[in-house]
């Protein structure tokens, strides 16, 4: 039985807004706009600079950052306004997403359109959303001191929280929309499919490490890296004694390797599972793989890079949909009550 229509629509809107937030975040990173706002003001920060004097004050704050001193000393006020507005939209949209998600919860709970179990689940999502905002600022802070870029580890953590949020929201939407387990399968097959989806999550986190290190700006050929399948730099003893995930060649090679592994696994799943969603997952994986190659050989063209980032969430969504269509042999098909995701 499907959940209340309003709850389903609301969750769908939240999923869509999360994807849009990923797009805005990608554009913010690719345009080097993320460090233009040097303070975190959740309430006062809703209002942008409204006068020339206010803009000059914000630019003066930006002038104290390593990014300004190393990369942007000749930036004009108009160019500063452009990158500031991109980061401002990023933060404002995050606040809007939080409001759209949190405000309806009391109404749906009081009117019993959602169960107590779902209320607890949604409150957990709200907590994760708060942690996501704090993690975003924690990430930005790493770029305001020392080197003129954010920590790629914090960037990966920021993305991982987004992955968790989106996965829970999308799964809840599918359940409320009436998507239920239908295809019987063995434990081994179910956990194999789950492992491939988990590998997809790992690949998304590796993508964040690649982005944080600007690793996509080097070795812009495929399938070869520096003229070889496995670049010679990976055989350095020094590399394996520490700093593997800080090395541009190592991180990019690992990202390529896991991508190929996911394509192979996804190609086998439709024949093994014979379940709905497996072919869709394969199609999404192949398209994402091609987008990744195009992004690499284009030396990270901003449009291709943004598409590659957001489509990783489409791949994740198709993987969760595939898992929702699987039912372990011997278990009854779940027929949830209204309001229970």
Overview of the molecule:
The chain has 341 residues and is mainly alpha-helical. It folds into 2 domains: 179 residues, no CATH class; 152 residues. Helix content is 65%, strand content 2%. Strands 1-2 form a two-stranded parallel ribbon. Helix 8 packs antiparallel against helix 11. The C terminus is likely disordered. Its EC number is 1.17.99.9. Pathway: Porphyrin-containing compound metabolism; heme A biosynthesis; heme A from heme O: step 1/1. Keywords: Cell membrane, Heme biosynthesis, Iron, Membrane, Metal-binding, Oxidoreductase, Transmembrane, Transmembrane helix.
Short description:
This protein is mainly α and 341 residues long. It is 65% helix and 2% strand.
Order of helices and strands: HHHHHHHEHHHHE
SS-based structural class? mainly alpha
Taking the sheet with the most strands, its summary is: 2 strands, parallel
Distance between the termini: 11 Å
How many individual domains?
Answer: 2
Q: What does the radius of gyration come to?
A: 22 Å
User: Based on DSSP secondary structure assignment, what is the total number of beta strands?
Assistant: 2
Number of helices: 11
Write down the overall geometry.
Answer: flat
Strand order of the largest sheet: 1-2
User: Stretches where pLDDT falls below 50 for ≥5 residues?
Assistant: 330-341
Q: Name the helicity range.
A: 55-70%
Average pLDDT score? 88
Strand content: under 5%
């Amino acid at each position: 039985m499907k959940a209340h229509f309003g709850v389903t629509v609301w969750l769908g809107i939240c999923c869509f807004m999360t994807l849009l937030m990923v797009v805005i975040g990608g554009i913010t990173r690719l345009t080097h706009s993320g460090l233009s706002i040097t303070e975190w003001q959740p309430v006062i920060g809703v209002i942008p600079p409204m006068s020339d004097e206010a803009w000059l004050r914000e630019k003066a704050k930006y002038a104290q950052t390593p990014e300004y001193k190393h990369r942007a000393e000749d930036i004009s006020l108009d160019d500063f306004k452009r990158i500031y507005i991109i980061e401002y939209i990023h933060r404002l949209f995050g606040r809007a997403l939080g409001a759209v998600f949190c405000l309806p919860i009391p109404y749906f709970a009081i009117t019993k359109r959602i169960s107590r179990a779902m209320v607890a689940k949604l409150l957990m999502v709200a907590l994760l959303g708060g942690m996501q905002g704090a993690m975003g600022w924690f990430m930005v802070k790493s770029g305001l001191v020392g080197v003129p870029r954010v920590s790629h580890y914090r960037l990966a953590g920021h993305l991982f929280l987004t992955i968790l949020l989106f996965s829970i929201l999308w799964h809840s939407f599918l359940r409320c929309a009436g998507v239920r387990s239908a295809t019987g399968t063995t434990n081994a097959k179910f956990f194999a499919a789950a492992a491939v989806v988990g590998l997809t999550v790992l690949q998304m986190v590796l993508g964040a490490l690649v982005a944080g290190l600007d690793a996509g700006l080097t070795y812009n050929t495929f399938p070869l890296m520096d003229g070889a399948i496995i670049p010679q730099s990976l055989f350095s003893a020094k590399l394996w004694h520490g700093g593997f995930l800080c090395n541009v060649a190592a991180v990019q090679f690992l990202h390529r390797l896991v991508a190929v592994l996911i394509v192979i696994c996804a190609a086998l799943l439709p024949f093994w599972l014979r379940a709905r969603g497996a072919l869709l997952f394969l199609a999404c994986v192949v398209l994402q793989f091609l987008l990744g190659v195009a992004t690499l050989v284009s030396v990270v063209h901003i449009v291709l890079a943004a598409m590659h980032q957001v489509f990783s969430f489409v791949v994740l969504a198709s993987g969760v949909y595939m898992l929702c269509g699987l039912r372990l042999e011997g278990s009854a098909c779940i027929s949830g009550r209204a309001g229970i995701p």
